[in-house]
Write a structure and sequence with these properties.
Layout: H1 2-18, E1 27-28, E2 32-34, E3 38-45, E4 50-55, E5 61-68, E6 73-82, E7 96-100, E8 107-109, E9 121-123, E10 127-132, E11 147-156
Length: 157
């Protein structure tokens, strides 16, 4: 009886060790991501791909990993950017859009200061975008039309 428990314990440990893998990246999907309440996606960007990232006031957390296929650099710009935050310098008190370009530390955007065509976010590799919304007083009321609408496309082929 005791050996059976030991064998089961060893099998369980072996299963845990062999099932160790990379953290979840998200579900692959179409280039246009319309964030729901909680969304986690992977999008592949090619030379002719134009992807859209849209989050609104109902979105709590939306994470998208953009992977390049046959492109040497991709670009992120936002045509609509209205993100409520009470800390306009570090974007730590309220909603925020965080972007991590390949080889760079994550960068937070909030208020009305997002990536625009004159100052886009450029990435020579994969790019990850997080939209985070808070609950409570900081997440309601002040910006009734809060959200973002961004475009990700190949910048250099």
């Amino acid at each position: 009886m005791r050996t059976m428990g030991t064998v089961l314990g060893l099998v369980f440990t072996l299963v845990l060790i062999t099932s160790a893998r990379e953290p979840k990246e998200g579900k692959p999907g179409p280039p246009d991501v319309y964030c729901g309440k909680v969304t986690n996606r992977v999008v592949y960007i090619g030379a002719k791909t134009i992807a859209e990232f849209v989050a609104d006031k109902w979105t709590k957390r939306c994470t998208v990993l953009y992977k390049m296929t046959d492109c040497s650099e991709m670009e992120l710009t936002c045509s609509y950017f209205n993100v409520d935050n009470r800390d306009p310098y570090k974007c730590k008190k309220g909603n925020s859009l965080t972007v991590r370009a390949y080889g760079e530390p994550p960068r937070r955007f909030c208020k009305r200061d997002g990536p625009v065509p004159h100052f886009p976010v450029l990435s020579p590799g994969n790019m990850k975008i997080w939209y985070k919304s808070t609950t409570g007083i900081l997440g309601s009321g002040r910006y009734p039309d809060q959200g973002v609408k961004c475009t990700i496309k190949c910048y250099k082929e």
